[in-house]
Amino acid sequence: MYQLSVIKDTIPIHPTSFHLPTEKALLNQLNKKYADRVIPDVGLGISVFDILEASEGKVRYGDGCFWHKVTFRLIVFRPFVSEVIVATVTGCTEKFIHVSTGFFHDISIPLSLIPAPHSYDPNENAHFTLSGADPDMTEEEMLETDVTQRLYLDKGEVVRIRVEEDKFHDDEPGPPRAVDGTYIKPKMQRPHYEIISHDLANRPPCRELDLDAWPGGQGKQTSMMPQADGDILEHQAALIALFQL
């Protein structure tokens, strides 16, 4: 799920940071630039792990900053294909189930990768299945079943998913346009980084994941995924400690 990527860049240190040790000032600038940013063909930057090499600072004409050529390692979020991760359902449409890890939300399960038998209930805006149902049941037959017997994948359900594919998009939103004298900011049509996954949730789905039910599983589920914005710094520190083991 997490990887270390070696990156080279030229980083400025502003005069207001000259009182800091060079390494700390560089770490601050690197995290400001790369943390919580999607790097094309690399992944979602989480935190700088360490600095491998840094040149002497040079002053360029006109800005007064010290510029350093830096080689560093960055912790990135990019699950590999076929990796199984735990996520939470955030919403459903007729063609997709959308899930989130808590800090990364652009994960979707397309209709073709939802285990059969299943169907979409437009009244509940959720996909559902039946315990012990015939795999050959059609969606029309599923919709004719008793509602009380259906097992819905509701918003907030915890599911196990297998990564099938990840995609990077470099879509430019284009310039703003004016409608009736009012400027409208263009919207991004596709996320910069998205993950296509396969739903592996055993039936019936459960709201709390019990690892004792998994083959070889022990104990309760513990997650290093931040559940709120305030947990990001703790999450970064935990990941750095993990890679230092």
Give me the secondary-structure topology.
Elements: E1 2-13, H1 22-34, E2 38-39, E3 43-54, E4 58-59, E5 66-77, E6 84-92, E7 96-100, E8 107-110, E9 119-121, E10 126-130, H2 139-143, E11 150-152, E12 158-168, E13 177-179, E14 182-184, E15 193-199, H3 232-244
Parallel strand pairs: 8-15
Antiparallel strand pairs: 1-5, 2-3, 3-5, 4-5, 6-7, 6-12, 7-8, 9-10, 10-11, 12-15, 13-14
Primary descriptors:
mainly beta, 245 residues, five-stranded mixed beta barrel
State the gist of this model:
The protein is 13% helix and 38% strand. It is mainly beta.
Structure write-up:
By secondary structure, this protein is mostly beta strands. It is built from 3 helices and 15 strands. Strand 7 and strand 8 form a beta hairpin. The chain starts with a strand and ends with a helix.
Structural category: mainly beta
Order of H and E elements:
EHEEEEEEEEEHEEEEEH
Strand content: 35-45%
Overall number of strands:
15
